[in-house]
Automatic annotation (TrEMBL):
This is Transglutaminase family protein. Pfam families: Bact_transglu_N, Transglut_core. It comes from Mucilaginibacter gilvus. It comes from the Bacteria. Residues 171-237 form the Transglutaminase-like domain.
Length: 327
C-alpha cells in the first residue's frame, strides 16, 4: 500500500498588472476503495475563497476568482495519497456474451458519452488496423490489451512535439506524442469496437523499473469491461494502471479533465509554468522526480463581465471558456 506525497504547482506570470483571475481547478484526487487522500493543502495567491462542486463525471471541481491587481498567480496543490492494488479481470465469461452486453448498453447513460467519437479523418486508416489487431474470439479485455500494445509500439514518445491543442489527425500523421496523445488514440480504438472508453488525468509515481511520465502529470485511458467495470490502461507504458497511478479526474477527453483553466481581465501577456514533484512519503531518502515545462505566451483580451457570487463566478468561467474555444 504505497503512500505518495505529490506537489503540483501552477504559476502564471504576467508582464503587466491584471485582475479578476477566474479559474476552474480539478486538483482533488479521486477518493474510492482504491485511493485514499490522507491530506490535501491547496495554497493560492491572495487566498481566495474556493467554491467546490461535483461535476457530471463525478470529479470534485473548484472555482475561485482573485480580484486584486496582480502580476503573478500561483496555485500550489500538496497532497498525500495512499493507493491500493486492483484485482485483474477474471475474463471467464464467453466472449460473445461480453460483446452482446456491450452492444446492449451503447445507448445507455453514461456509456453513450464514452462511445462518441471525436472527428478524426484518420478513422478510415485506423479502422482496418483495429480489425486486424482484434481476433474473432477475443474478449473485450484481450482486445483492449492488444490496442494498448499497438499504440505503445507504433507511436514514439517525444516530449514537446505536441500540445493540448494538437488534433488527433496531427498525432496520427506524426506517429508521436506524449501521454495524453497516446490516451486519446487508445480511446478511439476502443470506441471503434464498441468498448466505452474514458480519459483519466493524474500522476504516475516513481517505480524501481522506471516508467515514461514518472513524477509528472500523466494521462491514460479506462475501458469499461462487462462484469468488471472500468479498467485503467496506460498505453504510454503498455501496462495496466495500478497502485503507481494516482487519479485526479475522468472524462470524455483532456478538456473534461484539465487540472487548471482560467481567464483574467487585462491586456498583459502571460507565461504559464507547471511543476510536479512526486515522492514516497515513507522514504525521505528517495530523490523526487520532477517535470517542469513552459507553455508559450499569448495575449488575452480585456473581459468586462463582473460576477457577484459563487454561481455567477462559475457561469462566467464556463461562458468565457466556450467563447475562447469558438475563436
Amino acid at each position: 500500500m504505497p503512500e505518495f506525497k505529490i506537489q503540483h504547482v501552477t504559476k502564471y506570470s504576467y508582464d503587466n498588472l491584471v485582475r479578476d483571475s477566474a479559474n476552474k481547478i480539478i486538483l482533488f484526487p479521486i477518493v474510492d476503495i482504491y485511493q485514499d487522500v490522507l491530506k490535501h493543502d491547496l495554497i493560492i495567491t491572495g487566498h481566495p475563497q474556493i467554491d467546490t462542486y461535483v461535476d457530471y463525471y463525478g470529479n470534485e471541481v473548484g472555482s475561485f476568482t482573485y480580484t486584486e491587481p496582480h502580476n503573478m498567480l500561483v496555485i500550489n496543490s500538496q497532497v498525500s495519497v495512499n493507493t491500493h492494488p486492483r484485482p485483474l479481470p477474471t475474463d471467464a465469461v464467453d466472449s460473445i456474451a461480453q460483446w452482446d452486453e456491450l452492444y446492449s448498453i451503447k445507448y445507455i447513460v453514461p456509456y453513450i458519452d464514452f462511445l462518441k467519437q471525436e472527428y478524426f479523418e484518420g478513422l478510415s486508416e485506423l479502422f482496418p488496423i483495429v480489425e486486424g489487431e482484434r481476433q474473432t474470439n477475443d474478449t473485450p479485455y484481450r482486445a483492449a490489451l492488444k490496442f494498448t500494445e499497438y499504440v505503445y509500439k507504433n507511436f514514439e514518445y517525444i516530449k514537446g512535439v505536441t500540445t493540448v491543442e494538437t488534433t488527433l489527425d496531427e498525432i496520427w500523421a506524426l506517429k508521436a506524442g506524449v501521454c495524453q496523445d497516446f490516451a486519446h488514440l487508445l480511446m478511439v480504438m476502443l470506441r471503434l469496437v464498441g468498448i466505452p472508453a474514458r480519459y483519466v488525468s493524474g500522476y504516475i509515481c516513481p517505480n524501481r523499473d522506471g516508467m515514461r511520465g514518472e513524477g509528472a502529470t500523466h494521462a491514460w485511458a479506462e475501458a469499461y469491461l462487462p462484469g468488471y467495470g472500468w479498467l485503467g490502461l496506460d498505453p504510454t507504458n503498455n501496462c495496466l494502471a495500478n497502485e503507481m497511478h494516482v487519479r485526479l479526474a475522468v472524462g470524455r477527453n483532456f478538456s473534461d479533465c484539465s487540472p487548471v483553466k482560467g481567464v483574467y481581465k487585462g491586456s498583459a501577456r502571460h507565461i504559464l509554468e507547471v511543476s510536479v514533484s512526486v515522492g514516497y512519503e515513507d522514504e525521505s531518502g528517495l530523490p523526487q522526480e520532477k517535470d517542469i515545462f513552459t507553455v508559450s505566451t499569448f495575449p488575452t483580451p480585456e473581459k468586462t463581465t463582473v460576477s457577484r457570487n459563487s454561481y455567477e463566478r462559475y457561469m462566467e468561467i464556463i461562458q468565457q471558456q466556450q467563447q475562447q474555444q469558438q475563436q
